[in-house]
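Below sits the subject:
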Amino acid sequence: MGNHIDKTVQTSRTLKLPGFSLRQALYFVTAAESGTLSEAATRLHVSQSGLSLAINELERALKVQLCIRRKAHGITLTSAGKQALQQMRALLRQAEELESAVSGSGDQLSGRLSVGCYVTLAPTVLPPLLQGFSELHPMLTVDFTEGTQDALQRKLLDGELDLAVLYDMDVLPEMERVVLFTMRPHVLLPADHRLAGEPKVALHDLVAEPMVLLDAPPSSLHTLLLCKTAGVTPLVRHRTTNFEMARALVGRGLGYAILIQRPPNDRTYEGLRVVNKEIAELPEAAVSVLLCWPQQVAQTRRAAEFLRYCLEDRPGT
């Protein structure tokens, strides 16, 4: 018994309170994300002078300059500030997780979960996930961000997102990942195209026709790689970063497209019909859709439950 007490006392002596508060950390993170002190003060419902004082005190406690503040130019993070921003985001999430765990809410999740999704996947993948998960956990706020693969991965590493739904393309080695489902690339044609009635379409039969290229990284590189694998060089006539714009151009007969997402609606925004066709040269081609998070970041209970929901209870599974 005595040895156990001594060890406990010894362990407690190695711990000490940090020289800064969670409130100061929150003020700094909000200011960094807002870009200006005035915007951050508005978000936090505090005075700008009080916000500035809190950041000054935080810098004194850490003995380092976190940001450079210039009137009319907002704030710029120093290299130390960028490092601190990532760690303080994680600290605030852990504190929120602790509060939720001991608040007496039982199995009910609360707080905030930030989810990212590749821009073309978002319209069909996110809504059912957000609705279903929010119905199970009404006290939890789920925020979402759409973007390209590279932008979303940066946000994951910077601590801005908890999880992100991505294609299995150019995923950084720093990412943990699980496969949610797989999809097959297809050719999109206008309904009156000469090959619209065929069960499959060969890219060789389209080589002389204009292509509409979805140019949202890494979709464009993947599409061109598919063409190279099939042994064709496409005649790219139009480029767009907007998935529905690509479908609209195809619906107008301005070219064909190679896409992965297959919305259940076969009409464009204008009401013009388009058709999906399997690619004859690539019968085995498939792309996995992943749920990713940084390896070095311990998942919160909220993120772990969202992952479980996606794998076990996701609508359509």
About this structure: The first helix runs from residue 2 to 13. The CA atoms of residues 31 and 40 lie 5 Å apart.
